Amino acid sequence: KEDAVRLFDIPEEKIVVIYAGIDCAYRKLSKVNIASLKSKYGISDPFIMFAGGIDFKKNIEGLIVAYAKCGKSITNRYQLVIVGRAEPEILGQYLRIAKDHGVEGRVVCTGYIPKEDLIRMYNITELFTFPSFYEGFGLPVIEAMACGARVLTSNTSSLKEIAQGHATLVAPGSVRSIAKGIREILDHPLVSMKRAENSVEYAKSFQWKSVAQKVRKAILERWTP
Questions:
Q1: Nearest 5°: CA angle at 166, between 161 and 172?
Q2: Burial of residue 41 (number of CB atoms within 10 Å: 0-12, 13-18, 19+)
Q3: Mean pLDDT, all residues of the chain
Q4: CA distance 147 to 115
């Protein structure tokens, strides 16, 4: 909304902000075959996860470096799993960055995985990370919350707006800030787990039924003669 007002001079009062929606399939599961799922994607340990489109603005390189800077107490216990479709050379680049920063073998790039497995991964990850530089919305953040995951994301753009109070917010341009956020969550599990429990209910407000109701309300209030 702010960008539309600033860049296109659209009067603020003419804009109704309605958030994007998520499929109700994104939810906490009663049972996941953890060993089978991890084996399928070459994961051996508890893991920190990123999921989403693979491009520069997602800040995956920064995430890998931040993970490496968390120290052995984190990297020896948790792998970093990057989920998303990308060309082999891009995924290879991420693995080279991991090697250059001393975490070779601790970063796993799965490539594309089907939706059913993505939901399972959200359910079993120790922490979902999404330190993107800029988003128009940030669906993976809400998807992860709906599945009960603890979430770390950026204090910028729409991410701050949709996640504030329900996630740990970090400065995406600061490797130090991302690393500190990761350690904070994993070293203080009780606080972050309570937040994750509350986030499951919060995420329900982003289901498509709610989105449709808000669209209908906006049309009736503003454009019906």
A1: 60
A2: middle
A3: 93
A4: 13
Q: Are 152 and 124 in contact (CB under 8 A)?
A: no
Those residues whose C-beta lies under 8 Å from the C-beta of residue 27, and which sit 6 or more positions away, are: 119, 146, 147
Alpha helices in 82-164 (DSSP H): 88-100, 115-124, 139-146, 157-163
Report whether 63 contacts 178 (CB < 8 A).
Answer: yes
**Residues 101-149 pLDDT 10s:** 999 999 999 999 999 999 999 999 999 999 999 998 999 999 999 999 9
- Structure token digits, residue 156: 């910028």
Rounded to an integer, what distance in angstroms lies between the CA atom of residue 159 and that of residue 137?
7
Give 78's DSSP letter.
-
Edge-first strand order for the sheet with 79-83 is 107-111, 79-83, 47-51, 127-130, 151-154, 168-170
Q: For residue 225, what are its two tokens? A: 């003669």
Q: How far is the C-alpha of 184 from the C-alpha of 129, rounded, in Å?
A: 13
Per-residue pLDDT tens over the stretch 149-180: 999 999 998 999 999 889 999 999 999 999 99
Residue with tokens 């693979």: 54
178-181 contacts at long range (C-beta below 8 A, 24 or more positions apart): 178/62, 178/63, 178/66, 178/129, 178/131, 178/152, 179/66, 179/67, 179/69, 179/70, 181/152
Nearest to 175 by CA among 57, 58, 65, 72: 65
Prediction pTM value: 0.91
